[in-house]
Amino acid sequence: MSSSASLQSFLPPSAHAATSSSRHRPSRARPFQCAAVSAPSSSAASPSASAVPAERLEPRVEQREGGYWVLKEKYRTSLNPQEKVKLGKEPMALFTEGGIKELAKLPMEQIDADKLTKEDVDVRLKWLGLFHRRKQQYGRFMMRLKLPNGVTTSEQTRYLAGVIEKYGKEGCADVTTRQNWQIRGVTLPDVPEILEGLRSVGLTSLQSGMDNVRNPVGSPLAGIDPLEIVDTRPYTNLLSSYITNNSEGNLAITNLPRKWTLCVIGTHDLYEHPHINDLAYMPAEKDGKFGFNLLVGGFISPKRWGEALPLDAWVPGDDIIPVCKAVLEAFRDLGTRGNRQKTRMMWLIDELGMEAFRSEIEKRMPNGVLERAAAEDLIDKKWERRDYLGVHPQKQEGLSFVGLHVPVGRLQAADMFELARLADEYGSGELRLTVEQNIVLPNVRNDKVEALLAEPLLEKFSAHPSLLMKGLVACTGNQFCGQAIIETKARALQVTRDVEARVSVPRAVRMHWTGCPNSCAQVQVADIGFMGCLTKNSSGKIVEAADIFVGGRVGSDSHLTGVYKKAVPCEDLVPVVADLLVERFGAVPREREEDEE
Fold first, then answer.
1. Number of structural domains, the chain?
2. According to the UniProt entry, which residue ranges have a biased composition of type Low complexity (predicted)?
3. Sheet with 410-411, edge to edge strand ranges
4. Which of 313, 348, 363 corresponds to the end of one domain?
5. Are 391 and 402 in contact (CB under 8 A)?
6. From 23, 167, 530, 563, which residue has the greatest number of CB atoms within 10 Å?
């Protein structure tokens, strides 16, 4: 089936009609605009394509035997260590040539004794979605899946639960900030069997780590939201199929200079966070036809973060793959591979200028044509972002979706088995994962909602969490991650409980915790963010601490924020956060509430 045919039935007859019944409907949606922050972007004064020297636009990679793309000899100077590992051995060969089966037979002692196999375990296996936890869980791996749009089934959930159950206390699962599953405790000898098991239930972990395209994000309410602009599922599924070549491996895009992210926007709520994606598809009409305006270059990294910028391009809704392919190939061909902190796509855009970057994309498009953007997209900038937690009516009569809060995204095998049962018993056997590390159960009959809410599991995964708990996000932290400086998940929960005992807030406040400057928990978008570091406490002892970020926003008025206060010892955070909530977010000290009574 062609991409056009596969998407045609999902296109809205009119993007305006899609919101015609909404009390939130804008009189006329204004263009969605983003601006880079932190390090200044040269894109504002973009040189013309002709101003870039021709030699700079020469592709730096070439295709070799076996279909692999390799860095040309002339560009192999001043490379970062990861690029040297890629040159030492093709990472995808572990999958395409069955190398994982032989590697899985070797004991860790033998693997560590050889430079090449040690690099396989610590670096190249990330192309298969496997991350060795050398520091925290030697010999065990985190496995990251591909789950386009965050949609999964009860069967898939049971399979993953069965995998981690066998690992006992070493096994668990996390919902990630890209609508995805990560499972923990995996041992290398089990990997070939697990990969086959994933395939049998329609899952893959391929190309989910290192210099690859991350999970395509879409609306968690796609297809069930009465107020949506467009159902994002067919688009994210199509994109994922292209990215992994239907789970067989897309060798054309497995040697990028750095990781690369994308999303498709389906609602005015911008649940997908387009401003921090390398490529974001923004719904837009042009000449009466539905399609997407494009944003490019959004990212978060240790030294710099920047919001996505308009590419001044529009693509029809029934033909979205060519531009994704063109952007990826431009990044692959032209991106630098030296300082790892300067290899995300925005650095390339800054170097070339937006117009020259756009020209490189256009020349890689079919027929060499990339349409200019529609004058307006369909996002209402005055839209009030809706809360999907709790019980909400679907567009399908008689059905509701129920959003469940998963505290900091952590689940055990028993939790996953129960969620699968609830999805089957009360819904349609489907679950949706969200970028806030929560889960939505769709297609629940209205006459079953009360019984669902009474299920014991919902005492742990509440449909109605507290105002501070509902927006809590946390990365893995140093429990499992070797890069994390501090523990995050348990601390985030405890600090939040302690703060709740001190103050009462009038509205939800989104608090994000990340264990290191890589900011996997995206603290720059949070109302209040905590980035792990070390400092000396009042006694002069080195202790875990956090830089505090304040003022990030998501939704149509998105904003990435910077540091508010540096290096606060974690042991001192509770009063600092409580005071901050009073000063900035209208919180009331609980003592004052008691006095007023």
1. 2
2. 12-21, 29-54
3. 130-132, 140-144, 181-187, 172-175, 410-411
4. 363
5. yes
6. 530
